[in-house]
Amino acid sequence: MNGKIIILSAPSGTGKSTIISRIIDDPELRLGFSISATSRAPRGQERDGVEYYFITTDEFKARVERGEFVEWEEVYAGTCYGTLRSEVERVTSSGHNLIMDIDVKGGLNVKRAYGERALAIFILPPSREELERRLRGRGTETEERLLARLAKADYEMSFADSYDCRVINDDIDRASAEVGQLIRDFIARD
Ligand code: ADP
Ligand code: 5GP
């Protein structure tokens, strides 16, 4: 049986990756992470084929031309991210539920493409101030890239109501448990 699709979106720094890392190994959820391709460089401890497939902009364009993406977006100026058809197939054909960390436009495109087979969850930060604190605390961005991410947050947040459900990431334990429960309920449905 093919697995379902779980879409997680939020402004950068809200805590999507942290929540995914907390629930990814929960055996009840049978999750597999969709490794996206990106033209950005790895940061910190990121490894090719784990967090992302890191490819050049030319390689990214060639793959777009070959129709290898379910969806792709230039999320930040000059930096593209996309979901590979091969990833969706790799994870769902084994009966696992595919969880994807994806930007707001891509998330809604995937929801449109898969309809009832997909659950779109939007994660909200408790406030803009806390979002900035988390992004700064993560210490992974230059000041310029950090400001670009914050500037985009209001725009991204305006998509929250178009998602199937919303979870506020105030406390990481509570928010991860809420996301886990939403997924459990969703995969239990026919
Ligand atoms: P995203 O994947 O949405 O860009 P991350 O998961 O990288 O965000 O989280 C951004 C930063 O905020 C990280 O340093 C993470 O440890 C921290 N963080 C995540 N959730 C919480 C929370 N509920 N309270 C405080 N800090 C958090
Ligand atoms: P980051 O650079 O912080 O890892 O990710 C930046 C943004 O790109 C996040 O909003 C993340 O959700 C989004 N993103 C990651 N992978 C994909 C993808 O495959 N498609 C789209 N459209 N966005 C993605």
Notes on the protein architecture:
The structure is a single chain. By secondary structure, this protein is of the alpha/beta class. Helix content is 42%, strand content 23%. The protein contains seven helices and nine strands; from the N terminus they run βαβββαββαβαβααβα. It has helices at residues 16-23, 57-65, 85-92, 104-114, 128-138, 143-157, 172-188; strands at residues 5-9, 31-33, 36-38, 52-54, 69-76, 79-84, 97-101, 118-124, 165-168. The strands form two sheets. Strands 2-7-1-8-9 form a five-stranded parallel sheet. A four-stranded mixed sheet has the order 4-3-6-5, with helices on both faces. Helix 1 (16-23) packs across helix 7. The longest helix has 17 residues, at 172-188. The mean pLDDT is 95. Bound molecules: adenosine-5'-diphosphate and guanosine-5'-monophosphate (5GP). The site of adenosine-5'-diphosphate has 14 residues, from helix 1 and helix 5.
Q: What layout of secondary structure does this protein have?
A:
Layout: E1 5-9, H1 16-23, E2 31-33, E3 36-38, E4 52-54, H2 57-65, E5 69-76, E6 79-84, H3 85-92, E7 97-101, H4 104-114, E8 118-124, H5 128-138, H6 143-157, E9 165-168, H7 172-188
Parallel strand pairs: 1-7, 1-8, 2-7, 3-4, 8-9
Antiparallel strand pairs: 3-6, 5-6
Helix pairs in contact: 1-7
The structure holds adenosine-5'-diphosphate and guanosine-5'-monophosphate.
Tell me the strand order in the biggest sheet.
2-7-1-8-9
Number of distinct helices: 7
Ligands in the model, by name, code or SMILES, are: adenosine-5'-diphosphate, guanosine-5'-monophosphate
Q: What is the residue-averaged pLDDT?
A: 95
The radius of gyration is 16 Å
Unreliable sequence segments:
none
Envelope shape = globular
What is the end-to-end distance? 12 Å
Beta-strand residue percentage: 15-25%
